[in-house]
Amino acid sequence: MSDQDCIDPFRAERQAHGILIADFVGETIPMILRHADVRQAAKDWTIFSSDAPMRVPIPSEEGVRSVRQLPIEADPPLHTQFRDLLKPIFLRPLAPDYQARIDALIARLIEAATAQPEIEIVRGFALPLQSRALTYLLGMPEEAAEEWIGWGTHVFHDGEDSTGKGATLDRYIRGALDAADVVHGTDFFAILRRATVDGRALTIDEMIGIANLTFAGGRDTVIHSVSRIIAYFAAHREELAALAADHKRIAFATEEFVRFISPLTHIGRVCAHRTQLGSHDVQADERISLCWASANHDERVFEDPGVVRLDRSPNPHLGFGSGVHNCLGATQARAILRSLIQQLATQTSAITVLGEERQYEEQTDYRRWVGFESLLVHMER
Ligand code: HEM
User: Are residues 273 and 283 in contact, defined by beta-carbon separation less than 8 angstroms?
Assistant: First the structure.
Protein backbone atom coordinates (compact mmCIF):
# COMPACT_ATOMS: atom_id res chain seq x y z
CA MET A 1 0.00 0.00 0.00
CA SER A 2 1.49 3.38 -1.00
CA ASP A 3 1.83 6.40 1.29
CA GLN A 4 -0.90 8.18 -0.67
CA ASP A 5 -3.28 5.25 -0.09
CA CYS A 6 -2.70 5.52 3.65
CA ILE A 7 -3.43 9.26 3.56
CA ASP A 8 -6.75 8.71 1.78
CA PRO A 9 -7.67 5.03 1.98
CA PHE A 10 -11.32 5.79 1.19
CA ARG A 11 -10.86 7.24 -2.30
CA ALA A 12 -11.99 4.28 -4.41
CA GLU A 13 -15.13 3.60 -2.36
CA ARG A 14 -15.93 7.30 -2.05
CA GLN A 15 -15.84 7.71 -5.82
CA ALA A 16 -17.65 4.47 -6.63
CA HIS A 17 -20.40 4.26 -4.00
CA GLY A 18 -19.97 6.97 -1.37
CA ILE A 19 -20.27 4.32 1.33
CA LEU A 20 -17.79 1.81 2.72
CA ILE A 21 -19.28 -1.12 4.60
CA ALA A 22 -16.59 -1.74 7.17
CA ASP A 23 -16.03 -4.19 9.98
CA PHE A 24 -15.10 -2.93 13.44
CA VAL A 25 -14.42 -5.73 15.89
CA GLY A 26 -17.24 -7.81 14.43
CA GLU A 27 -19.71 -4.93 14.04
CA THR A 28 -20.61 -3.98 10.47
CA ILE A 29 -20.81 -0.21 10.13
CA PRO A 30 -21.52 1.72 6.92
CA MET A 31 -19.16 4.67 6.67
CA ILE A 32 -20.49 7.78 4.91
CA LEU A 33 -17.63 9.04 2.75
CA ARG A 34 -18.67 12.03 0.65
CA HIS A 35 -18.40 15.59 1.96
CA ALA A 36 -22.00 16.59 1.16
CA ASP A 37 -23.41 13.37 2.62
CA VAL A 38 -21.32 13.57 5.80
CA ARG A 39 -22.39 17.17 6.35
CA GLN A 40 -26.04 16.36 5.75
CA ALA A 41 -25.99 13.35 8.08
CA ALA A 42 -24.21 15.36 10.80
CA LYS A 43 -27.11 17.84 10.65
CA ASP A 44 -29.83 15.20 10.88
CA TRP A 45 -29.56 14.29 14.53
CA THR A 46 -33.18 13.13 14.64
CA ILE A 47 -32.20 10.33 12.23
CA PHE A 48 -28.52 9.89 13.09
CA SER A 49 -28.52 10.22 16.85
CA SER A 50 -25.74 10.77 19.38
CA ASP A 51 -27.98 9.72 22.26
CA ALA A 52 -26.00 6.53 22.67
CA PRO A 53 -23.79 6.16 25.76
CA MET A 54 -20.38 4.60 24.97
CA ARG A 55 -21.38 4.12 21.31
CA VAL A 56 -20.45 7.40 19.66
CA PRO A 57 -16.76 6.45 19.29
CA ILE A 58 -15.95 3.60 16.89
CA PRO A 59 -15.07 1.01 18.15
CA SER A 60 -17.42 1.58 21.09
CA GLU A 61 -16.04 2.18 24.57
CA GLU A 62 -18.11 -0.01 26.92
CA GLY A 63 -14.89 -1.72 28.02
CA VAL A 64 -13.06 1.42 29.08
CA ARG A 65 -15.69 3.58 30.75
CA SER A 66 -19.08 3.25 32.38
CA VAL A 67 -20.40 6.81 32.11
CA ARG A 68 -21.92 8.65 29.17
CA GLN A 69 -19.51 11.29 27.80
CA LEU A 70 -21.14 14.71 27.67
CA PRO A 71 -22.09 16.69 25.70
CA ILE A 72 -21.06 14.40 22.84
CA GLU A 73 -23.30 11.44 23.68
CA ALA A 74 -26.56 13.36 23.81
CA ASP A 75 -28.96 14.98 21.34
CA PRO A 76 -30.65 18.36 21.71
CA PRO A 77 -32.22 19.60 23.91
CA LEU A 78 -30.10 17.83 26.57
CA HIS A 79 -26.98 18.29 24.44
CA THR A 80 -27.60 22.03 24.12
CA GLN A 81 -27.91 22.47 27.87
CA PHE A 82 -24.58 20.81 28.57
CA ARG A 83 -22.85 22.49 25.68
CA ASP A 84 -24.06 25.92 26.81
CA LEU A 85 -22.78 25.16 30.28
CA LEU A 86 -19.31 24.35 28.94
CA LYS A 87 -18.97 27.11 26.36
CA PRO A 88 -17.50 29.72 28.75
CA ILE A 89 -14.71 27.27 29.63
CA PHE A 90 -13.98 26.09 26.09
CA LEU A 91 -13.99 29.64 24.71
CA ARG A 92 -11.31 30.82 27.16
CA PRO A 93 -8.65 30.68 24.42
CA LEU A 94 -10.32 33.76 22.88
CA ALA A 95 -9.30 35.92 25.87
CA PRO A 96 -6.40 38.24 24.97
CA ASP A 97 -3.92 36.96 27.57
CA TYR A 98 -4.61 33.30 26.79
CA GLN A 99 -2.76 33.19 23.47
CA ALA A 100 0.23 34.84 25.16
CA ARG A 101 0.35 32.00 27.70
CA ILE A 102 0.23 29.39 24.93
CA ASP A 103 2.96 31.29 23.05
CA ALA A 104 5.15 31.33 26.17
CA LEU A 105 4.61 27.60 26.74
CA ILE A 106 5.60 26.74 23.17
CA ALA A 107 8.58 29.11 23.31
CA ARG A 108 9.82 27.22 26.40
CA LEU A 109 9.36 23.85 24.71
CA ILE A 110 11.21 24.98 21.59
CA GLU A 111 14.00 26.44 23.69
CA ALA A 112 14.40 23.14 25.54
CA ALA A 113 14.23 21.18 22.27
CA THR A 114 16.90 23.27 20.57
CA ALA A 115 19.18 23.00 23.61
CA GLN A 116 19.47 19.23 23.08
CA PRO A 117 21.11 17.35 20.21
CA GLU A 118 17.85 15.52 19.54
CA ILE A 119 14.29 15.36 20.82
CA GLU A 120 11.54 12.77 20.50
CA ILE A 121 8.62 14.95 19.50
CA VAL A 122 5.59 12.79 20.39
CA ARG A 123 6.32 12.25 24.09
CA GLY A 124 8.97 14.92 24.62
CA PHE A 125 7.16 17.86 23.01
CA ALA A 126 3.61 17.24 21.77
CA LEU A 127 2.32 15.38 24.84
CA PRO A 128 3.61 17.91 27.40
CA LEU A 129 2.38 20.74 25.16
CA GLN A 130 -1.13 19.27 24.94
CA SER A 131 -1.34 18.53 28.68
CA ARG A 132 0.11 21.79 29.94
CA ALA A 133 -2.07 23.81 27.57
CA LEU A 134 -5.07 21.92 28.94
CA THR A 135 -4.30 23.23 32.45
CA TYR A 136 -4.83 26.77 31.09
CA LEU A 137 -8.19 25.80 29.60
CA LEU A 138 -9.31 24.17 32.84
CA GLY A 139 -7.97 26.94 35.09
CA MET A 140 -5.64 24.58 36.95
CA PRO A 141 -2.01 24.90 38.05
CA GLU A 142 0.44 23.85 35.36
CA GLU A 143 1.93 21.20 37.69
CA ALA A 144 -1.36 19.27 37.40
CA ALA A 145 -0.25 18.34 33.88
CA GLU A 146 2.57 16.12 35.16
CA GLU A 147 0.10 13.41 36.19
CA TRP A 148 -1.82 13.75 32.91
CA ILE A 149 1.42 13.43 30.90
CA GLY A 150 1.92 10.11 32.67
CA TRP A 151 -1.28 8.80 31.05
CA GLY A 152 0.46 8.84 27.66
CA THR A 153 -0.80 9.91 24.27
CA HIS A 154 -4.26 8.40 24.72
CA VAL A 155 -6.23 8.11 27.97
CA PHE A 156 -7.50 4.63 27.00
CA HIS A 157 -5.34 3.21 24.24
CA ASP A 158 -1.68 4.08 24.82
CA GLY A 159 -0.38 0.78 26.23
CA GLU A 160 -1.75 -2.71 26.77
CA ASP A 161 -4.34 -2.30 29.51
CA SER A 162 -7.17 -0.08 28.20
CA THR A 163 -9.58 -1.09 30.97
CA GLY A 164 -6.99 -0.29 33.65
CA LYS A 165 -6.30 3.07 32.00
CA GLY A 166 -10.01 3.86 31.91
CA ALA A 167 -10.21 3.08 35.64
CA THR A 168 -7.21 5.34 36.35
CA LEU A 169 -8.91 8.25 34.60
CA ASP A 170 -12.15 7.59 36.44
CA ARG A 171 -10.35 7.55 39.82
CA TYR A 172 -8.51 10.75 39.00
CA ILE A 173 -11.73 12.56 38.05
CA ARG A 174 -13.60 11.38 41.14
CA GLY A 175 -10.68 12.49 43.34
CA ALA A 176 -10.48 15.91 41.67
CA LEU A 177 -14.25 16.44 42.02
CA ASP A 178 -14.06 15.45 45.71
CA ALA A 179 -11.16 17.80 46.33
CA ALA A 180 -12.68 20.78 44.50
CA ASP A 181 -13.36 23.93 46.51
CA VAL A 182 -17.07 24.24 45.77
CA VAL A 183 -17.43 27.68 47.37
CA HIS A 184 -14.40 29.60 46.12
CA GLY A 185 -12.81 27.38 43.45
CA THR A 186 -12.46 28.72 39.92
CA ASP A 187 -11.08 25.59 38.28
CA PHE A 188 -12.95 23.19 36.01
CA PHE A 189 -13.86 20.72 38.78
CA ALA A 190 -15.20 23.41 41.09
CA ILE A 191 -17.25 24.84 38.22
CA LEU A 192 -18.72 21.38 37.53
CA ARG A 193 -19.59 20.95 41.22
CA ARG A 194 -21.49 24.27 41.25
CA ALA A 195 -23.07 23.90 37.80
CA THR A 196 -26.79 23.44 37.23
CA VAL A 197 -28.95 22.33 34.31
CA ASP A 198 -32.70 22.88 34.38
CA GLY A 199 -32.32 24.37 37.85
CA ARG A 200 -30.77 21.22 39.36
CA ALA A 201 -27.20 20.29 40.22
CA LEU A 202 -25.38 17.89 37.90
CA THR A 203 -25.33 14.25 38.90
CA ILE A 204 -21.94 12.75 39.69
CA ASP A 205 -22.13 10.69 36.47
CA GLU A 206 -22.78 13.83 34.43
CA MET A 207 -19.78 15.56 35.99
CA ILE A 208 -17.59 12.52 35.36
CA GLY A 209 -18.92 12.21 31.80
CA ILE A 210 -18.01 15.82 31.01
CA ALA A 211 -14.54 15.48 32.55
CA ASN A 212 -13.95 12.13 30.84
CA LEU A 213 -14.59 13.65 27.41
CA THR A 214 -12.51 16.72 28.23
CA PHE A 215 -9.48 14.56 29.00
CA ALA A 216 -10.05 12.00 26.23
CA GLY A 217 -11.08 14.26 23.32
CA GLY A 218 -8.40 16.57 22.08
CA ARG A 219 -5.49 14.50 23.33
CA ASP A 220 -4.21 12.22 20.54
CA THR A 221 -5.80 14.58 17.99
CA VAL A 222 -3.68 17.52 19.17
CA ILE A 223 -0.59 15.34 19.66
CA HIS A 224 -0.82 13.90 16.13
CA SER A 225 -1.39 17.35 14.65
CA VAL A 226 1.62 18.84 16.45
CA SER A 227 3.92 15.96 15.47
CA ARG A 228 2.84 15.91 11.84
CA ILE A 229 3.17 19.68 11.47
CA ILE A 230 6.73 19.49 12.79
CA ALA A 231 7.53 16.62 10.40
CA TYR A 232 5.96 18.54 7.52
CA PHE A 233 8.08 21.62 8.08
CA ALA A 234 11.21 19.52 8.51
CA ALA A 235 10.64 18.47 4.90
CA HIS A 236 9.28 21.81 3.61
CA ARG A 237 11.31 24.45 5.43
CA GLU A 238 10.92 26.95 2.57
CA GLU A 239 7.14 27.14 3.18
CA LEU A 240 7.64 28.37 6.75
CA ALA A 241 9.38 31.58 5.73
CA ALA A 242 6.26 32.90 3.99
CA LEU A 243 4.18 32.30 7.10
CA ALA A 244 6.38 33.87 9.76
CA ALA A 245 4.81 37.27 10.18
CA ASP A 246 1.42 36.73 8.63
CA HIS A 247 -1.40 35.77 10.99
CA LYS A 248 -3.88 35.25 8.17
CA ARG A 249 -1.60 32.81 6.36
CA ILE A 250 -0.93 30.98 9.61
CA ALA A 251 -4.68 30.62 10.15
CA PHE A 252 -5.12 29.21 6.60
CA ALA A 253 -2.20 26.84 7.11
CA THR A 254 -3.68 25.58 10.39
CA GLU A 255 -7.01 24.76 8.72
CA GLU A 256 -5.20 23.01 5.88
CA PHE A 257 -3.29 20.81 8.31
CA VAL A 258 -6.51 19.89 10.12
CA ARG A 259 -8.08 19.03 6.75
CA PHE A 260 -5.13 17.08 5.40
CA ILE A 261 -4.29 15.20 8.60
CA SER A 262 -7.92 14.79 9.75
CA PRO A 263 -6.77 13.69 13.21
CA LEU A 264 -10.15 12.14 14.02
CA THR A 265 -10.94 9.68 11.21
CA HIS A 266 -14.63 9.35 11.98
CA ILE A 267 -17.29 9.20 14.66
CA GLY A 268 -20.43 7.14 15.10
CA ARG A 269 -24.14 7.85 15.17
CA VAL A 270 -26.97 5.47 16.00
CA CYS A 271 -29.92 5.25 13.62
CA ALA A 272 -33.08 6.29 15.41
CA HIS A 273 -35.14 4.23 12.96
CA ARG A 274 -34.63 2.10 9.87
CA THR A 275 -32.82 4.13 7.19
CA GLN A 276 -31.56 3.64 3.65
CA LEU A 277 -27.92 4.63 3.02
CA GLY A 278 -27.31 4.30 -0.71
CA SER A 279 -28.18 0.69 -1.42
CA HIS A 280 -27.58 -0.28 2.18
CA ASP A 281 -30.43 -0.83 4.61
CA VAL A 282 -29.60 0.28 8.18
CA GLN A 283 -31.85 -1.03 10.94
CA ALA A 284 -32.99 1.01 13.95
CA ASP A 285 -30.29 1.07 16.66
CA GLU A 286 -27.53 0.10 14.21
CA ARG A 287 -24.59 2.44 13.83
CA ILE A 288 -23.25 4.43 10.91
CA SER A 289 -20.00 6.42 10.70
CA LEU A 290 -19.47 10.01 9.67
CA CYS A 291 -16.06 9.82 8.03
CA TRP A 292 -14.49 13.25 8.40
CA ALA A 293 -11.20 12.01 6.94
CA SER A 294 -12.81 10.89 3.70
CA ALA A 295 -14.97 14.02 3.40
CA ASN A 296 -11.82 16.12 3.82
CA HIS A 297 -10.26 14.42 0.78
CA ASP A 298 -13.37 14.58 -1.40
CA GLU A 299 -12.23 15.69 -4.84
CA ARG A 300 -15.66 17.23 -5.52
CA VAL A 301 -14.90 19.86 -2.89
CA PHE A 302 -11.10 20.09 -2.62
CA GLU A 303 -8.85 20.52 -5.64
CA ASP A 304 -5.80 18.25 -5.32
CA PRO A 305 -6.99 16.92 -1.97
CA GLY A 306 -3.84 14.83 -1.55
CA VAL A 307 -1.64 17.95 -1.65
CA VAL A 308 -1.01 20.24 1.32
CA ARG A 309 -1.74 23.76 0.10
CA LEU A 310 -1.07 26.06 3.00
CA ASP A 311 -2.99 28.93 1.40
CA ARG A 312 -6.08 26.86 0.59
CA SER A 313 -9.13 29.10 0.75
CA PRO A 314 -11.99 28.50 0.99
CA ASN A 315 -11.37 25.40 3.03
CA PRO A 316 -14.71 23.95 4.18
CA HIS A 317 -13.06 20.98 5.90
CA LEU A 318 -14.91 18.87 8.44
CA GLY A 319 -11.86 18.06 10.56
CA PHE A 320 -13.54 19.60 13.60
CA GLY A 321 -16.87 18.01 12.72
CA SER A 322 -20.03 19.70 11.56
CA GLY A 323 -23.47 20.43 12.99
CA VAL A 324 -24.46 20.70 16.64
CA HIS A 325 -21.53 18.62 17.93
CA ASN A 326 -18.80 20.53 16.11
CA CYS A 327 -15.63 20.49 18.18
CA LEU A 328 -15.87 22.49 21.40
CA GLY A 329 -12.09 22.30 21.75
CA ALA A 330 -11.40 23.81 18.32
CA THR A 331 -10.45 27.22 19.74
CA GLN A 332 -7.93 25.50 22.03
CA ALA A 333 -6.56 23.37 19.18
CA ARG A 334 -6.28 26.39 16.89
CA ALA A 335 -4.53 28.45 19.58
CA ILE A 336 -1.93 25.69 19.97
CA LEU A 337 -1.38 24.91 16.30
CA ARG A 338 -1.23 28.54 15.15
CA SER A 339 1.30 29.40 17.82
CA LEU A 340 3.33 26.31 16.97
CA ILE A 341 3.53 27.22 13.28
CA GLN A 342 4.43 30.81 14.04
CA GLN A 343 7.17 29.88 16.46
CA LEU A 344 8.61 27.13 14.29
CA ALA A 345 9.01 29.89 11.69
CA THR A 346 10.56 32.46 14.01
CA GLN A 347 12.35 30.40 16.67
CA THR A 348 13.93 27.61 14.60
CA SER A 349 16.23 27.72 11.59
CA ALA A 350 16.17 24.03 10.65
CA ILE A 351 14.47 20.80 11.68
CA THR A 352 15.99 17.47 10.68
CA VAL A 353 14.18 14.17 11.11
CA LEU A 354 16.56 11.57 12.57
CA GLY A 355 14.07 8.74 12.79
CA GLU A 356 10.35 8.06 12.73
CA GLU A 357 7.87 5.33 13.45
CA ARG A 358 4.48 6.04 11.95
CA GLN A 359 1.23 5.22 13.68
CA TYR A 360 -1.52 3.79 11.51
CA GLU A 361 -5.15 3.24 12.26
CA GLU A 362 -5.44 -0.43 11.29
CA GLN A 363 -8.91 -1.75 10.58
CA THR A 364 -10.07 -4.79 8.65
CA ASP A 365 -11.16 -2.62 5.72
CA TYR A 366 -8.66 0.24 5.70
CA ARG A 367 -5.29 1.36 6.93
CA ARG A 368 -4.85 5.08 7.57
CA TRP A 369 -1.82 7.10 8.57
CA VAL A 370 -2.82 9.22 11.57
CA GLY A 371 0.43 10.27 13.22
CA PHE A 372 3.67 9.08 14.73
CA GLU A 373 4.43 6.56 17.40
CA SER A 374 7.75 8.38 17.65
CA LEU A 375 9.46 11.18 15.75
CA LEU A 376 13.08 11.90 16.54
CA VAL A 377 14.34 15.28 15.31
CA HIS A 378 17.22 17.69 15.62
CA MET A 379 15.88 21.21 15.99
CA GLU A 380 18.14 24.21 15.46
CA ARG A 381 17.63 27.67 16.82
C1 HEM B 1 -6.95 18.98 16.20
C2 HEM B 1 -7.60 18.66 17.31
C3 HEM B 1 -9.03 18.20 17.36
C4 HEM B 1 -9.80 17.59 16.41
C5 HEM B 1 -9.40 17.21 15.01
C6 HEM B 1 -11.12 17.37 16.99
C7 HEM B 1 -12.19 16.80 16.32
C8 HEM B 1 -13.49 16.76 16.81
C9 HEM B 1 -14.64 16.34 16.05
C10 HEM B 1 -14.60 15.84 14.62
C11 HEM B 1 -15.75 16.46 16.85
C12 HEM B 1 -17.20 16.17 16.46
C13 HEM B 1 -17.73 14.92 17.12
C14 HEM B 1 -19.14 14.55 16.70
O15 HEM B 1 -19.70 15.10 15.75
O16 HEM B 1 -19.73 13.65 17.35
C17 HEM B 1 -15.29 16.95 18.13
C18 HEM B 1 -16.10 17.21 19.22
C19 HEM B 1 -15.61 17.59 20.46
N20 HEM B 1 -14.32 17.90 20.78
FE21 HEM B 1 -12.74 17.94 19.52
N22 HEM B 1 -11.12 17.84 18.28
C23 HEM B 1 -9.87 18.36 18.54
C24 HEM B 1 -9.47 18.97 19.72
C25 HEM B 1 -10.21 19.04 20.85
C26 HEM B 1 -9.76 19.56 22.12
C27 HEM B 1 -8.37 20.17 22.36
C28 HEM B 1 -10.78 19.39 23.02
C29 HEM B 1 -10.83 19.71 24.48
C30 HEM B 1 -9.89 20.23 25.20
C31 HEM B 1 -11.89 18.81 22.31
C32 HEM B 1 -13.13 18.55 22.85
C33 HEM B 1 -14.26 18.20 22.12
C34 HEM B 1 -15.59 18.12 22.69
C35 HEM B 1 -15.97 18.41 24.16
C36 HEM B 1 -16.45 17.73 21.66
C37 HEM B 1 -17.95 17.46 21.73
C38 HEM B 1 -18.77 18.66 21.32
C39 HEM B 1 -20.26 18.40 21.35
O40 HEM B 1 -20.69 17.26 21.48
O41 HEM B 1 -21.02 19.38 21.31
N42 HEM B 1 -11.51 18.60 21.00
N43 HEM B 1 -13.91 17.13 18.07
Answer: no
Contact 22, 365 (CB under 8 A): yes
The number of domains in the chain is 1
Is the CB of residue 193 below 6 angstroms from any atom belonging to ligand 1? no
Q: Give the 3-state secondary structure of residue 68.
A: coil
Residue of the CA atom closest to atom 14 of ligand 1: 325
Angle subtended by helix axes 96-114 and 330-347, to nearest 10: 50
Q: Assign 63 a pLDDT band (cuts: 50, 70, 90).
A: confident
Bridging pattern class, strands 27-32 and 48-49: unpaired
Could you report the per-residue pLDDT of 151-206, keeping only the tens digit for each?
Answer: 998 878 878 788 888 899 999 999 999 999 999 999 999 999 999 999 999 999 99
Host domain of residue 255: 3-380
Buried b (16+ CB within 10 A) or exposed e, 313-340: eebebbbbbbbbbebbbbbbbbbbbbbb
* Integer Cα distance of 141 and 137 in angstroms: 11
The HSE-up count of residue 154 (CA atoms within 13 Å, CB side) is: 19
What is the β-pairing status of strands 367-380 and 275-277? unpaired
Q: Point out the ligand 1 atom lying closest to the alpha carbon of residue 83.
A: 41
Expressed in percent and rounded to 5, the helix, strand and coil fractions of the chain are 45, 15, 35
Q: Is the dihedral of CA 60, 64, 68, 70 positive or negative?
A: negative
Atom of ligand 1 nearest to the CA of 73: 40
DSSP code of residue 124: I
CATH number at residue 46: 1.10.630.10
